[in-house]
């Protein structure tokens, strides 16, 4: 056991005792270790709890307690200690499950509500890996598009109503975030994009835009995109021929779109952003594939040359890497970490790039999708709402899975109406969820199980800002009383 860490934790435990004393308003506070044996046993157990949770962040407290031979009261104290300890929180931050932590930080700590508008009913691409694309035996590619009447696309009044509701949600202390995404390609419907951006600007709500960059080929469209605070361009290949093969196959006979077009569009947009003095962050969303994993460093060089702000590297969620590729990806990431300062763009590597990530190690199970509506909503180009990506995305064998539609937005029927009318939805298998939905489902479940075992959310071991708040039952914790002298 790491003695230095144990000593640090003992000090942090003392500070927790001091916090209890000061919050109870006791004069002459002097927390002292009464029983150093109990104290060091608990700190050692807490380190083991963290080592366990780093690999299984979704484990409910009851399971952790059984594995570690701890009582519920000891677990509560350990969780409070984890929240308060920079040493322990760093173990989570530097682990392959750090994105689990990000999910908790976004949705539980900051209390964020995310609305994802799937704008656009088509796409100029025919990506070979797109769940929306069917590759026929003759090699031609078929794209499933949204089908519906144009006159049912949400207009200005419907979109204004959504933003009014987001404003009300914000008044309740929850931070709204809007994403304009696909679905298919948002820039195939610049009118709807413009309506969303108008409302977001008026209400001061942040917007992230996700695009493949192919249609950023006019100053008007680039100017429109630059109204978002964060622009993420999907780019997975650095070779012109591979790009053509992956993005289009035989469908690019005219050669209208190419890697050169996208890079030129991005370059123009960065220049225009700088010339106009706008603050939008522009970066790449890059899926690390078997075919491109050797290009990770080259992507960072490209991003630097283009003047980009970040690259978000993610895995292909439908396929795990071969052991050789996995090892090479890990090695590259480690090397980049060592030499971080050389790379101007911020580099983000999703935890799900690693096989130890809970997205891969805990694939069995189902999500109760209506529970995700507390945190996010996807809206199809026709204003139909679904709390899960699967319920809003058209696929090759059907349009949208309407079993997961929870309502339709209209000028007279807003987001809050949809939420108020929410009914339980059929379960959905984990393997139909993207990583952030999967981790959100696991965390919702973990918190519910903890609550039913008598551990309220203030003890959430990943909710670090809770470190300085003492839950009402905390001072009465019998283990804490054995450790810390509370003097009145
Ligand atoms: S750009 Fe996106 S939506 Fe279009 S085909 Fe490719 S993956 Fe599918």
Return the structural class: alpha/beta
Give the low-pLDDT segments: 26-32
Number of separate domains: 2
CATH topology description of the largest domain? TIM Barrel
CATH architecture of the largest domain: Alpha-Beta Barrel
Percent of residues in helices comes to: 40-55%
CATH class of the largest domain: Alpha Beta
**Hetero groups bound?**
iron/sulfur cluster
Number of strands: 14
**CATH superfamily assignment of the largest domain?**
Aldolase class I
Q: How many angstroms does the end-to-end distance come to?
A: 36 Å
Radius of gyration from CA coordinates: 25 Å
Arithmetic mean pLDDT: 88
Strands of the widest sheet, in order across it, are: 9-8-7-6-5-4-1-11-12-13
Description:
The chain is of the alpha/beta class and 488 residues long. The protein has two domains: 3-95 and 456-483, no CATH class; 110-435, Aldolase class I (TIM Barrel, Alpha-Beta Barrel). Helices cover 42% and strands 13% of the residues. It has helices at residues 3-24, 36-55, 61-68, 72-84, 86-93, 98-109, 156-171, 190-203, 219-225, 240-247, 259-276, 296-306, 323-338, 358-361, 415-420, 435-452, 478-483; strands at residues 112-118, 133-135, 141-143, 175-181, 206-211, 230-234, 281-288, 310-315, 346-349, 366-367, 376-379, 384-386, 407-408, 428-429. The strands form three sheets. A ten-stranded mixed sheet has the order 9-8-7-6-5-4-1-11-12-13. Strand 7, helix 12 and strand 8 form a beta-alpha-beta unit. Helix 2 (36-55) crosses helix 4 (72-84), helix 6 (98-109) crosses helix 16 and helix 7 packs parallel to helix 8. The relative contact order is 0.15. Mean pLDDT is 88; it is low at 26-32. The structure holds iron/sulfur cluster. Iron/sulfur cluster binds next to loops.
């Amino acid at each position: 056991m790491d003695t230095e860490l144990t000593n640090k934790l003992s000090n942090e435990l003392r500070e927790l005792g001091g916090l209890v004393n000061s919050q109870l308003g006791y004069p002459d506070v002097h927390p002292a270790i009464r029983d150093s044996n109990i104290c060091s046993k608990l700190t050692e157990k807490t380190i083991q709890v963290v080592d366990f949770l780093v690999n299984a962040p979704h484990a409910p407290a009851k399971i952790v307690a059984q594995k570690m031979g701890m009582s519920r009261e000891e677990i509560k104290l350990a969780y409070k200690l984890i929240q308060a300890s920079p040493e322990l929180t760093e173990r989570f931050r530097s682990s392959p499950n750090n994105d689990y932590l990000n999910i908790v930080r976004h949705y539980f700590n900051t209390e964020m509500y995310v609305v994802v508008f799937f704008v656009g009913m088509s796409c100029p691409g025919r990506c070979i890996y797109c769940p929306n694309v069917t590759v026929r035996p003759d090699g031609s590619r078929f794209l499933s598009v949204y089908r519906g009447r144009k006159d049912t696309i949400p207009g200005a009044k419907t979109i204004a109503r959504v933003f009014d509701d987001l404003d009300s949600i914000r008044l309740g202390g929850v931070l709204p975030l809007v994403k304009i995404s696909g679905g298919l390609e948002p820039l195939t419907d610049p009118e709807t994009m413009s309506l969303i951006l108008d409302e977001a600007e008026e209400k001061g709500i942040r917007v992230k835009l996700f695009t493949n960059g192919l249609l950023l080929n006019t100053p008007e469209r680039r100017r429109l995109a630059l109204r978002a605070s964060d622009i993420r361009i999907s780019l997975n290949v650095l070779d012109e021929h591979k790009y053509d093969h992956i993005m289009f196959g035989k469908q690019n006979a005219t050669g209208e779109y190419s890697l050169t077009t996208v890079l030129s569009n991005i370059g123009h947009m960065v220049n225009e952003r700088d010339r106009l003095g706008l603050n939008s962050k522009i970066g790449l969303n890059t899926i690390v594939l078997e075919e491109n994993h050797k290009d990770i460093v080259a992507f960072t060089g490209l991003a630097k040359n283009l003047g980009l702000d970040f690259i978000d590297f993610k895995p292909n969620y439908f396929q795990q890497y071969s052991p050789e590729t996995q090892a090479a990806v890990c090695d590259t990431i480690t090397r980049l970490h060592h030499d971080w300062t050389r790379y101007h763009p911020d580099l983000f590597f999703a935890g799900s790039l690693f096989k130890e990530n809970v997205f891969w190690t805990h694939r069995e199970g189902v999500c109760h999708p209506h529970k995700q509506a507390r945190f996010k909503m996807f809206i199809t180009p026709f204003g139909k709402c679904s709390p899960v990506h699967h319920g809003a995305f058209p696929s090759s064998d059907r349009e949208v899975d309407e079993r997961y539609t929870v309502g339709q937005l209209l000028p007279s029927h807003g987001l809050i109406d949809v939420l108020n009318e929410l009914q339980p939805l059929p379960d959905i298998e984990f393997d139909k969820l993207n990583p952030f939905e999967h981790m959100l489902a696991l965390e919702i479940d973990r918190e519910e199980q903890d609550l039913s075992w008598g551990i309220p959310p203030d003890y959430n071991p990943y909710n670090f800002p809770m470190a300085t708040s003492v839950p009402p039952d905390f001072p009465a914790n019998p283990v804490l009383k054995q450790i810390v002298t509370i003097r009145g």
